């Protein structure tokens, strides 16, 4: 249920960002006070090795709107966002990175787009970026692929600056490296009103980037995973069973045809080649075996899914009930 007493929850995942945190909080506080928002800031320390948690603790002592969550070790941005989403109490939830590359000045407009224009999710678009080419070019290619595959017309899936209706963050589970595909997860959950806003991107002021080239590989693997789960997560038999049945029928039909061809040639007194001497026979048998295995994989997936506690979990937008004495 959305909390109507807090306008905005700002969720900030962080890892070794002790230098930027006081400046970031001061900036957020100024924006919130200028717009008379009731707010909270949830810092999620993803197992920092520096003094980030000490800084968060000090900020919480001096500002009652600050809350902190600390992990025992580094679990990744998705885990940090998930914990922040669980803790968020505002009508609108804003996420931003802790490195000062996201501007808190964007918060009022993001809030307005959610509360007045009716968006479930608004994603930032860093149209002009201050990152090296080794980071921007792969990012553009990845985003183009994600748009093509998911059908969601966003230019920057991985932008950390986003705004959500509270119900959205309470209804999705962000795990692994799926923070890149939160819009896809939201759409899968039934929140299709997804918008985009061009946001100001700033050059990194402190520290170094925590992400390398390996995130591009992980991104494509996660894209495959999220698309599979969105289309076949509830009914794996549709994919595996369909592929298995097709391969079984093709392999079986090929085997029958080889045997029938041999019998026909024998009846006509023609030269006959042994069925087992033909490579096509072994390909057909392999297709039958793989078909059975795929079908069984789909069947087992259905059995596992049937035991899932949220198999028939549907998101209810509104409910009206008549109360009679």
Description:
The protein is α/β, with parallel strands linked by helices and 325 residues long. It folds into two domains: 8-232, Spore Coat Polysaccharide Biosynthesis Protein SpsA, Chain A (Alpha-Beta Complex); 236-305. It is 47% helix and 11% strand. The mean pLDDT is 84.
Essential attributes:
alpha/beta; Spore Coat Polysaccharide Biosynthesis Protein SpsA, Chain A; 2 domains; 7-stranded mixed β-sheet; 7 strands; elongated
Indicate the overall shape. elongated
**Mean pLDDT across residues:** 84
Total number of helical segments? 10
Number of DSSP strands? Answer: 7
Domain unit count = 2
Alpha-carbon Rg, integer: 27 Å
Strand content: 5-15%
Q: What is the name of the CATH class of the largest domain? A: Alpha Beta
Helix content percent band: 40-55%
CATH topology of the largest domain: Spore Coat Polysaccharide Biosynthesis Protein SpsA, Chain A
* Cross-sheet strand order for the largest sheet: 3-2-1-4-6-5-7
> Are there runs of 5+ residues with pLDDT below 50, and where?
none
* Helix-strand pattern: EHEHEHEHEHEHHEHHH
The CATH superfamily of the largest domain is Spore Coat Polysaccharide Biosynthesis Protein SpsA, Chain A
In CATH terms, what is the architecture of the largest domain? Answer: Alpha-Beta Complex
Structural class: alpha/beta
Largest sheet: 7 strands, mixed
């Amino acid at each position: 249920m959305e909390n109507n007493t807090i306008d905005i929850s700002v969720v900030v995942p962080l890892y070794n960002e002790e230098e930027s945190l006081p400046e970031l909080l001061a900036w957020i506080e100024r924006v919130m006070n200028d717009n008379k928002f009731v707010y909270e800031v949830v810092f999620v320390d993803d197992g920092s090795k520096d003094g980030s948690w000490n800084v968060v603790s000090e900020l919480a002592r001096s500002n009652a709107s600050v809350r902190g969550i600390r992990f025992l070790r580094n679990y990744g941005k998705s885990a940090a966002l998930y914990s922040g989403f669980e803790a968020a109490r505002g009508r609108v939830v804003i996420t931003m990175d802790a490195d000062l590359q996201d501007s808190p000045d964007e918060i009022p407009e993001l809030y307005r787009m959610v509360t007045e224009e009716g968006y479930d999710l608004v994603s930032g678009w860093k149209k002009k970026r201050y990152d090296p080419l080794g980071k921007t070019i792969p990012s553009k290619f990845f985003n183009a692929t994600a748009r093509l595959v998911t059908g969601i017309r966003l230019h920057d899936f991985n932008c950390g600056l986003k705004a959500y209706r509270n119900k959205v963050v309470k209804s999705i589970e962000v795990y692994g490296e799926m923070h890149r595909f939160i819009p896809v997860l939201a759409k899968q959950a039934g929140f299709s009103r997804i918008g985009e806003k061009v946001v100001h991107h700033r050059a990194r002021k402190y520290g170094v980037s925590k992400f390398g080239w390996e995130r591009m590989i992980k991104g494509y693997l996660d894209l495959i995973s999220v698309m599979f789960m969105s289309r076949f997560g509830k009914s794996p038999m549709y994919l595996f069973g369909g592929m298995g049945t097709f391969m079984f029928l093709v392999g079986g039909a090929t085997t029958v045809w080889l045997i029938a061809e041999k019998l026909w040639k024998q009846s006509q007194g023609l030269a006959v080649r042994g069925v087992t001497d033909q490579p096509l026979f072994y390909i057909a048998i392999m297709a039958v075996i793989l078909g059975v295995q795929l079908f069984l994989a789909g069947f087992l997936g259905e059995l596992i899914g049937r035991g899932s506690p949220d198999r028939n979990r549907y998101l209810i937008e509104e409910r009206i009930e008549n109360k009679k004495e």
